[in-house]
Design goal:
Heat Shock Protein 90; Rossmann fold; elongated; six-stranded mixed sheet; 4 domains
């Protein structure tokens, strides 16, 4: 269940308060210095990965070593060195090497500098040999280091250039000293080794290049296969999920409701797994695109917890959540990716937790309030330290026993890591065997936004409440929420102490309502409410907090039911409904957003879908929204129908016979008259970023991924129909 704290500070000890396991020593003197340090750290991390910067540091080190070596050789009379030349060479080349280093700091990527550095490296090596006045010289090895280094770092072109320049430079040294008669054999060996060794390295680089190309082709084939398979899986899955949702809207007995709910839960889980595979493929191919925008943050968190509460309840677990009250309602980022990361981490926590609960905490970083930190903490089996580093590897689970005991492909944490890093964030994990694990990630979602002081004046001052919540963490958080609303709260954590508390309240005769929270152990809330009303008054208002899918009989008056997770807005709205005179009423929104644009005539939608089952599902969903539907099975029929009849909007599948969705929208855009615009929504089982981009570039107005739910469909249609209504409608 989700609780928020408002206006009061709650210790973030989490589920293991008092256990010295996870510390958060975030501290800084001021925000500006922290941001500067972070910028410097990011700059240094980027710079240290630059191969030219690495070469520049190695170049300086070798040059200093070479000059010290020659100086010591001269001092011991091992080399006959002209000291004036020595100092000119030392300081001259040192200045050039430092200039190269500083140019990298100013302009990290510059192809011409690599060739200039190559010439300078060979010139410096040649001057070292000239200073020692010996052709058979240990500095010859620097030629080898140069062409191996350049070939490995920059490829075959630089290898060829380094090899030829080294050969020419050493040949010039041999000619300059004219010592062929002294060491002819050694000189020729050294000279030709500058051709043979690079040639061998060139062959090795060719093999590496071919192996990389084959690996890229195999990876591309794998990605194409996974993309096709996810599309083929999503097409029938759309029919299963869609028909299940339609079936849930029909009269069912309790047993049938349970069966249909199981089908819906399984279909949703399968859909998320298929989507994870597709997104992981996009991450591997570097084709993942982000859709950053303003989004409602708290409903997103609640939706994730609601989606997983049924699975948690099956294991008698409870999902808790603590959202920092200072966070604004609107954040900036990619809501779909945030949803995916939270879903993956919480789903894994539920999967590997046998008893206890899973706690989600969200708060801004103290050192940098522009960053948001998410923590998912569980009381599960934990992970050993030596295995923790591998937890984000694909297809990996802690051991075979864990894999056998818990279903899953081991993709959740891998996908979460890839998505977080794609959003410019960081992710990590901490764990202790037997106590559980904590997975965290940090992302910059508060850029340009200030934290809020959500402390409000008490709206319900004077009300007295009895809170019955068995979870100690949930009890504490819910108590703070009620007290921040001005409600005097008496809390009970154990059923055994409830009788004594009720007796005290019965004597005092001062209780306005009860908040009765269910637990995964399935308490009989109706029986408890009967006992409470028998002692505290038959008309006692009761606010039930239950779990999604577990309904209470609507047999009593003055009662409200809120499905866990619970947010502040829901709790305040429920209390306001129980006591209408205590707070101003919030105006109700229209029951359907499409009512705004319906007008006198009904809205007509052109639907192009070749699969009859999916067409039936989509047609029923559109009909339930009050829309008239013209259904065709391919793009050519869609073009003909669009010419013959006026439509307000078109929903077009991408894969259709004769003419696909892309072909339809391209041809239709050429046929539209000036001032007319038919909103076209793409419908596809392949939700990859590349397909989305292709649709928008072709002239589509929006994109819907299968399986489509009614809420998402209504939201997309509402936006485009209102736009069309404002400018005079489609065609």
């Amino acid at each position: 269940m989700v609780y928020e704290t408002f206006g009061l500070s709650v210790p973030r000890g989490g589920l293991w308060q008092g256990v010295p396991l996870f510390g958060r020593g975030w501290c800084c003197l001021n925000q500006r210095s922290t941001e500067s340090r972070m910028a410097i750290n990011i700059r240094w991390e980027t710079l240290i990965q630059n191969p030219e910067f690495q070469s520049a540091l190695v170049r300086l080190t070798i040059w200093l070593f070479a000059m010290i070596y020659i100086g010591l050789g001269s001092a011991s009379s091992y080399y006959a060195v002209e000291m004036a030349e020595y100092y000119r060479s030392f300081f001259g080349f040192l200045a050039v090497f430092l200039a190269i280093l500083f140019s990298i700091l100013i302009r990290p990527e510059w192809e011409a500098r690599r060739y200039f550095s190559l010439i300078v490296d060979i010139a410096g090596t040649t001057f070292c040999i000239l200073l020692t006045r010996e052709v058979i010289n240990p500095f010859f090895l620097l030629y080898v280091w140069i062409f191996i280094s350049y070939g490995t770092r920059y490829g075959k072109r630089h290898l060829r250039a380094a090899s030829l320049l080294s050969f020419a430079a050493y040949l010039a040294v041999l000619i300059h000293f004219d010592q062929w008669h002294v060491a002819a054999f050694d000189s020729l060996f050294f000279l030709f080794s500058l051709l043979i060794i690079p040639f061998y390295q060139y062959m090795l680089l060719n093999k590496v290049h071919q192996a990389r190309l084959e690996a890229e082709r195999a990876n591309h084939a794998k990605s194409a296969f996974l993309s096709t398979m996810t599309h083929e899986l999503n097409t029938p899955l759309n029919g299963i999920v869609g028909m299940t949702h339609l079936l849930q809207a029909t009269p069912l007995n309790p047993v049938q409701e349970e069966y249909v709910q199981s089908i819906a839960t399984s279909g949703s889980l399968l859909g998320s797994l298929v989507g994870n595979v597709l997104d992981l493929t996009s991450l591997e191919s570097l084709h993942l695109e982000l859709d950053e925008k303003r989004f409602s943050f708290r409903p997103l968190v609640r939706d994730v917890c609601l989606a997983l509460s049924a699975r948690a309840l099956e294991k008698r677990l409870e999902i808790l959540c603590d959202i920092d009250p200072r966070l604004p309602d609107q954040l900036v980022g990619d809501p779909r990716r945030i949803h995916q990361v939270l879903y993956c981490l919480i789903s894994n926590a539920v999967k590997f937790t046998a008893q206890g609960c899973v706690d989600l905490r969200v708060f801004p970083l103290d050192g940098d309030p522009h960053w948001l930190r998410f923590e998912v903490e569980d009381t599960g089996i934990g992970i050993e330290d030596e295995l923790l580093e591998r937890v984000f590897e694909p297809f990996w689970q802690a051991d075979a026993t864990t894999t056998a005991r818990n279903d899953g492909a081991g993709l959740g944490s891998t996908l979460a890591k890839g998505l977080v890093e794609a959003m410019g964030g960081r992710i990590g994990a901490e764990s202790q065997v037997g106590l559980g694990s904590l997975f965290w990630f940090e992302v910059p979602l508060l850029a340009g936004m200030a934290l809020e002081n959500r402390q409000q004046g008490p709206r319900f001052r004077g009300l007295h409440c009895l809170l019955i919540e068995i979870s100690s963490v949930g009890n504490a958080r819910l108590s703070l929420m009620l007290e921040a609303m001005g409600i005097s709260c008496r809390s009970v954590e154990q059923v055994s102490t409830l009788a004594a508390e009720v007796s005290r309240l019965e004597d005092q005769r001062r209780i306005d309502f009860v908040v009765l929270a269910d637990t995964p152990l399935r308490h009989d809330l109706l029986r408890l409410s009967e006992i409470l009303r028998g002692h505290l008054g038959a008309g006692l208002p009761i606010l039930y907090l239950g779990f999604s899918g577990k309904k209470l009989l609507e047999s009593s008056v003055n009662s409200l039911f809120l499905a866990k997770p619970v947010t502040r807005e829901l709790l305040e709205g429920a209390v306001a409904a129980l006591f209408p005179g205590s707070a101003p009423q919030t105006p109700r929104e229209p029951s359907s957003p499409l009512q705004v644009v319906s007008g006198e005539r009904r809205i007509r939608v052109l639907m192009a879908e070749d699969n009859s089952i999916n067409a039936g599902v989509l047609r029923a969903l559109l009909g339930s929204l009050g829309l008239e539907v013209d259904w065709v099975k391919d793009g050519e029929e869609a073009l003909r129908m669009a010419r013959e009849r006026r439509h307000d909007l078109a929903v077009v599948d991408l894969r259709m016979p004769k003419l696909d969705g892309i072909g339809f929208v391209k041809q239709w855009r050429t046929l539209e008259e000036e001032g007319e615009h038919l909103p076209v929504i793409a419908l596809t089982a392949n939700a990859s970023s590349s397909v989305r981009r292709e649709c928008l570039e072709a002239g589509m107005d929006d994109f819907l991924a299968k399986p489509v739910d009614k809420e998402t469909l209504a939201t997309v249609l509402f936006g485009h129909l209102n736009q069309g209504h404002a400018r005079g409608g489609g065609r």
